């Protein structure tokens, strides 16, 4: 399954033990993880700035994502969303053929899907994957 993990999920996967970390590992092991440059840039900003994560940990995590995930991109025009910062991210997921977009962003979760791509919380993906095994 092609899975796009949003910045919120990736931050949680790195900084906390729990569902997002386990989900990240499961996606890397058994599925195709999609990533976009806007997510990598946002991820670095959150980890280094807001969370004050060390440069070496941040660089290592971003390097892992660059090597293990399939990078996807989209050209404008992007879908119109309440938060314009989300537009290139969602567009990249759609362009990459993501079968699911996983996020903790309430505004995106309230949409439920876009362009036929389901938008779900980490717990929803965990349940979906458990049902597929």
The assigned structural class equals alpha/beta
Q: Rg to the nearest angstrom?
A: 14 Å
Low-pLDDT ranges = none
**How does the major sheet shape up?**
6 strands, mixed
Strand content: 5-15%
CATH fold-level label? Rossmann fold
The named CATH superfamily: 5'-nuclease
Record field, number of beta strands: 6
The average pLDDT value, as a whole number, equals: 93
How many helices? The count is: 7
Q: Please, how many domains?
A: 1
Indicate the CATH class.
Alpha Beta
How far is the first residue's CA from the last residue's CA? 12 Å
Share in helix: 40-55%
Compressed to H and E, one letter per element, the order equals EHHEHHEHEHEEH
Shape: globular
**Order of neighbouring strands in the sheet with most strands:** 3-2-1-4-6-5
Instruction: Label the CATH architecture.
Output: 3-Layer(aba) Sandwich
Structural features:
133 residues; alpha/beta; Rossmann fold; six-stranded mixed β-sheet; 6 strands; globular
Q: What this model shows, in words?
A:
The structure is a single chain. The chain has a single domain, classed as Rossmann fold, CATH 3.40.50. The chain is built from seven helices and six strands, in the order βααβααβαβαββα. It has helices at residues 7-15, 19-30, 37-50, 55-68, 87-95, 106-109, 122-132; strands at residues 2-5, 32-35, 70-71, 100-102, 113-114, 117-120. Strands 3-2-1-4-6-5 form a six-stranded mixed β-sheet, sandwiched between helices. The protein is globular. It starts with a strand and ends with a helix.
């Amino acid at each position: 399954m092609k899975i796009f993990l949003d910045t919120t999920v990736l931050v949680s996967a790195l900084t906390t033990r729990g569902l997002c970390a386990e989900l990240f590992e499961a996606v890397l092991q058994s599925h195709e993880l999609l990533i976009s440059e806007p997510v990598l840039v946002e991820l670095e900003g959150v980890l280094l700035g807001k969370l004050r994560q060390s440069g070496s940990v941040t660089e290592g995590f971003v390097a892992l994502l660059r090597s293990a995930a399939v990078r996807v991109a989209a050209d404008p025009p992007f879908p119109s969303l309440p938060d314009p910062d989300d537009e290139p991210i969602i567009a990249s997921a759609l362009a990459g053929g993501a079968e699911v977009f996983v996020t903790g962003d309430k505004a995106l979760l309230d949409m439920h899907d876009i362009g036929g791509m389901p938008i779900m919380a980490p717990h929803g993906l965990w349940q979906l994957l458990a049902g597929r095994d």
